[in-house]
Specification:
single chain, Rossmann fold, about 25% helix, globular, RecF-like, ATP hydrolysis activity, P-loop_NTPase, ATP binding
């Protein structure tokens, strides 16, 4: 489980270290930095897929994504991201590139430093792998030994070097799941029929919703999906039908209606709830599942059933919910660790937390 998340120099976040719990809800007013914290988590996930540099470039490069306030004296321009748990941690430092004559990619950031360590805190004796510039060192018995192969400034050591601890961390991060692009408009992929194949993990766009829900019904916890439907839409029954071509079609039978509704007829809120149910009741829980503004399009009456779904899922995996909805945060109850973000003089801070009250954290130096 991730216990500490730290971000420095990213958008409105100058220096922020927060504690995470099995269930964490991130709240705050518009513009307080919730999206920045969410994107920072996604950037960390991209590092394991060798996509952190490209992700920063897509956001406009370091010029657009770095801390927008006054720079610290004698500090290099950088975006630093890291996390740790009882079993270890990882940190990455992205900085300005060395200009190359004739290159059209001089706006790409470079990876200046990466460190992987065991235990909750970064200590020299706990370092398992260390990347400084192009050079990687791996712990062998009691000391770090350099690896002969150099790594390119735009490549992460997690993806480029096949060593036991690095592979373990890479696969761990790659199993994180993020849901923030679940469309519910008239042309949403989730409204279409889908090939009938077992789908234990809902796709990022929800196109395989019918297959994912049927998979939960067949190999998930018995009755859990039906209970979630009844909690949100009392007396209703979810159906998944197949046709001769092997395509699956979602239906919802509701009290008082003479025929079931097809997915194309679902309200945006109904479809959103079904998508979230498929993500949260997955028969193959990840280590970390992150939901960004799950309340979008939901009727207020659906927030309590959604909170129940999230609470159930949090018994199987770690969950972070980023939300504007105070009602959802309240519905999650005292079992959720709440982080309220505020903005002071342009800087994202945690409400009620002084600068010297944050969890312990140590950045690797360049």
């Amino acid at each position: 489980m991730i216990r500490t998340l730290s971000v420095e120099g990213y958008r409105s976040i100058r220096d922020l270290t927060v504690e995470l719990a099995p269930l964490t809800v991130v709240t705050g007013a518009n513009g307080s930095g919730k999206s920045s914290l969410y994107r920072a988590l996604r950037l960390l996930a991209e590092a394991a897929r060798n996509g952190a540099v490209a992700a920063v470039a897509r956001e406009g490069g370091l010029t657009s994504t770095r801390w927008a306030g006054p720079p610290r004296k004698n500090s290099p321009v950088s975006i630093r991201l890291g996390f740790s748990g009882d079993d270890g941690g990882y940190a990455i430092d992205l900085g300005l590139p060395v200009p190359s004559t004739g290159s059209l990619f001089n706006n790409d950031p470079e990876i200046k430093r990466e460190v992987l360590w065991s235990g909750p805190l970064l200590r020299p004796s706990a370092v398992l792998a260390d990347r400084a510039g192009p050079l990687i060192s791996i712990r062998n018995d009691r000391r770090l030994e350099p690896v002969l192969e150099a790594v390119a400034p735009y490549d992460s050591m997690l993806s480029e070097y096949a060593d036991g601890p690095l592979i373990g961390m890479r696969e761990r991060i790659r199993r994180w799941r993020f849901y923030d692009h679940l469309r519910t408009d008239a042309d949403a992929p989730a409204r279409r029929t889908v090939i009938g194949t077992r789908t234990p993990i809902l796709g990022h766009d929800g196109a395989d919703l019918a297959a994912a829900l049927q998979t939960i019904r067949e190999i998930g916890v018995e009755g859990e999906l039906d209970n979630a439907i009844d909690a949100a839409f009392p007396g209703s029954r979810l159906g998944v039908d197949d046709d001769p071509d092997g395509l699956l079609r979602l239906t919802l039978t509701q009290p008082g209606l003479r025929r079931p509704l097809g997915a194309a007829e679902f309200s945006d809120g109904t479809l959103r709830y079904l998508l979230l149910a498929a993500a949260l009741l997955t028969p193959r829980p990840p280590e970390l599942l992150v939901l960004n503004e799950p309340e979008t399009s939901l009727h207020p009456d659906l927030l309590a059933p959604l909170a129940g779904l999230i609470g159930t899922a949090a018994t199987r995996c770690q969950i972070v919910v980023v939300t504007h909805a105070a009602a959802l945060a309240r519905a999650l109850g005292d079992d959720a660790h709440r982080i309220e973000l505020i903005k002071e003089e342009g800087e994202t801070r945690v409400a009620g937390l002084g600068r010297f009250e944050a969890p312990a954290w140590q950045w690797p130096k360049r």
